Structures are given as structure tokens and as C-alpha cells.
Amino acid sequence: MATPASNRALPAIAVDPTNKPYFDAAREGRMLIGLCKDTGKHFWYPRGCSPFTLSNNVELVEAKGTGTVYTFSVMRTKEPYCVAYVELDEGIRVFTNIVDCDLDQVKIGQKVKVVFKPTTGDSPPATMFTPV
Amino acid sequence: MSINGKAYIVGAFEHPTRKADNQSVAQLHAEVAYGALQDAGLTKDDIDGFFCTGAAPGLGPLNMADYLGLTKLRHFDSTDVGGSSYVMHVGHAAEAISMGLCDIALVTLAGRPRAEAMATGTAPRTWGANVPDDPFEMVYGRTVANVYAMCAMRHMHEFGTTSEQLAWIKVAASHHAQWNEHAMLRKVVTVEDVVNSPMVADPLHRLDCCVISDGGGALILAKPEIARSLKRPLVKVKGHGEATKNQNAGYTDVTFSGARWSGPRAFEEAGVTPKDIQYASIYDSFTITVLMQLEDLGFCEKGQGGKFVADGNLISGVGKLPFNTDGGGLCNNHPANRGGMTKVIEAVRQLRGEAHPKVQVPGCTLALAHGTGGLLGTRHGSATVILERE
């Protein structure tokens, strides 16, 4: 028995002045992640301060866009979908969806790559992942 | 400075309703406050400290203080960490009383998500505007159920925990709920019933989830001199710990909870260990919540929670650690989607010897109540209190 990922309608994303560069890059098909320049460590989710030092000495850098499933759950609603934490190759774990696959075959440790899915109206696309 | 012995729980009341079609939220607050005052043998004008959360209607404590006619207040606190708030309020009230900021504190919780037909666990919901993590989570359909489910999935992967082991937690709760005339689910269930119930969010089944209910509860805490002047059994606040846990800037680990930090703080203040606890109220939004908190509080080794809860070990009179003898959130109620209040109330019943005779722990003098509020797999509050019958 298979559970194909649904193409459920995605709500608009609440873009704010601080996270706008992340979503501008998403519109161009690029996934960015936070980098603390004080410590050299990546962080998630993107924000205007370093969660390690609280300084604003941070920048967004492009991620490779590949990783593995750290954990997941298939929501068994009328339109089934799969939430997950994906561990990026850069070492950080991001909250996301696994899409474009049989949801019954998703597994912890599975290799995935980034895809961008349209949301509502002028809202930027959502950063999601699909099996490699 | 320690709060150990500086304050007592002198009043406790759980609203009997599970579906409040005919009462507003504010009126439910009034009814639980009145019930707790009656229980304590006090009146409204004795209260000089008031504790509620953002679930109370209005601006912090202001509108409820008005509705309830609390005119003598000199201390208030509306710390909101979801369902764990009311466990935390016990600690905060004891702190305030120990510092002389108030003498008699009232804590209230009420809500009617069932009457309002709120989609509680399976529909995305958030806490208001400008929440900085929302743009990175809400679009993915983050719900209460799937965020807890992701913790269970990873726990199974790392430690070999099984659905059958999780089911034992529901089974134990149902054994207790059969004796509670107010419980929503009084039928005793089996492991097979749980694992054969419909999947909500893999690997959590419908019976791994708590009920959705209306109602509420209230507590009254007082300084020792006042507690001793009242006619109720003496229930002392012995220790309290609190913590927050989140995604740790992307280096998240969903296999443990903030109980890992709040628990030891409470045990240290109380001067006791998990082995000393005779009864435990453990937050049970889902079966996995219970399992992870039991490990993190030190009732068993990390990763051994599945073995610990199996075979009825949480059933009063059967196992080593009687838990949630009112049926808990899994079977009794989960008023306002916040289970911390009823956790404290059942611990007080056990210490007073007023739990149902079929589930009363004989000679219960030391109990623990623990809450997890918010979302286990993203960011949550954690509060532990240790209470002693004097």
C-alpha cells in the first residue's frame, strides 16, 4: 500500500524585514542557512543575531541542499503529508516536509535533496526535500 | 534560598465538566476558584496573590482579577509556558509566599476547546503574530500531533522503543480512569486496542493521544502559619525546577525533554531522589510524552523507558510507579489543552489520601508532578514540583 504525497495547498509565509533575504533566495531556487561569523558555526532557523553570541555578526550562506532524514511523521489526514527534520550536510537539522514520493517509504537516514514548492499568491516558495 | 517548606497547597479543585456548553471561560475560572476556596476553607478576600496564563481571557491577570472580584491583590504572575504553566505556578507561588510578596495565592485554569470545536492536535496553530520561527515551520503543517510523533519516531530508531510499549502507558491510564466517574474514557483498553486504533501521525495512534476537553481547575497556596490554621491535610511544596528546551540553533535532539534539567533542580531542592517518589503525575499529552519525561526525570535510564512502562508498571497497586491515577490527559480530561493543573490536583489528592480507593497509593507521603508545555519536538517549557504530606 502506498501513500503518495498530496499536493495540498500551502499557506502564505509570514516574511518579515529580518528574514526577507532568506525568502528572496528561495524565490531564486537557493537555500540559505545562518552562519555566525564570531564562531564559524552554522545555525537554523535564519535570524538577525547569532544564537551562540547574540551579536549581529551573522550572514546567510548557501547550503549544499542535501542531507538525510533525522526524523519524520506522516500526518494521516485527508491529504496526507510528511513533516520531518532533515539533517543538512552542514550539520544542522531543519524543520521541513518530505515531498514527491511514496510517504510510506520515508525512512530515518534516507538521503534527500532540496526542492522549492509554491505557496499562496505572492508568498515565497517553501523549502522542502525529496528523496535523492 | 530554597522554597522547601515555605508554602503549602491548601486548596485544590477540578471542574467536573468535560463539555461546557453553558459556561463562558471566565465563568469556568470563577467556578474553579470558588471550588478551591471552599476546599481550603477560605474566602475570595483572603487572596492576595493571583496566577493565571495567556489562556485566561484578557490582558494577563487583569480581566480575570476584575471578573473574580479580587480586590486585595498585591502580587500576580501570568507566566505562560503552555500546559506546564500550572506546575510552574506552584513553584512561583511558593517563591512569592516565601519572600512575603503574598500570603495566599490562587492559581486558575479554564477553557472550552471542545464546546468551541477547536481542532486541537491535528490542525496547524500558532501563538500569535511576529513569532520568528513560524515562517520556517507553519507552512509545513506543523501540528501538535506530528511534532510529538517525530520525537517518538526518533526514540524508536535510537532506543528500539516499540508501539506496544507506548501503548502500555494508555493501558495504565485506562485502568485508573475506570474508577473516575468524570473521566471521558472509562473503558479499560488493551495494548492491542491502542496499536489497532487509527494512525494519526506515524507512529502515534489515536489512543496514543490525550482527550480534548473543557473544564479547568484551581489551586490555593498559603504560608505555613495559615496552612496550619486550616482544617485540610498539610501538603508542603518541597522542591521546584523549571527549564525550557528548543531546537538549540539547529543542533536539535528530539529524544529528550526539558525534564532532564527541571527534574534535578526540583530533586535537589527537595533533598530526595526519584526512588523516594511514591506517586507521580506525569504530563500525558501523548504516550511518548510520558515515556520521555520518565527517563529524563530519572525514574529509569535514558532509552529504557519502553521497558519501564511495560507490563503495567505504571498501574496503581500493580506496578512500581503509580502514575496519573485520575486517568490523566489520556483518559480523564485535558482542560483548555493544558494538563499541568490536573497533574498537581491528583498529586494533592494522593497526598491527602483522597484519591479513589481503588487507585489510592497506601501511605502516600511524597509525590511528584511534572508538566511539559508547548511542543515537545520544537520548543517547550518544563516544570517539576515535589510535594510532601506532613
Automatic annotation (TrEMBL), chain A:
Domain ChsH2 C-terminal OB-fold residue range list: 61-117
InterPro entries registered for this protein in UniProt: ChsH2_C, ChsH2_Znr, NA-bd_OB-fold, Thioester_dehydratase-like
Domain of life: Bacteria
Protein name: OB-fold domain-containing protein
Recorded coiled-coil stretches: none
Domain ChsH2 rubredoxin-like zinc ribbon per the UniProt entry, residue ranges: 23-48
Taxonomic lineage of the native organism: Bacteria, Pseudomonadati, Pseudomonadota, Alphaproteobacteria, Acetobacterales
From TrEMBL, chain B:
CDD domains reported in the protein's UniProt record: SCP-x_thiolase
Domain Thiolase C-terminal, residue spans: 245-388
Protein name: Thiolase domain-containing protein
Naturally occurring in which organism (per UniProt): Belnapia mucosa
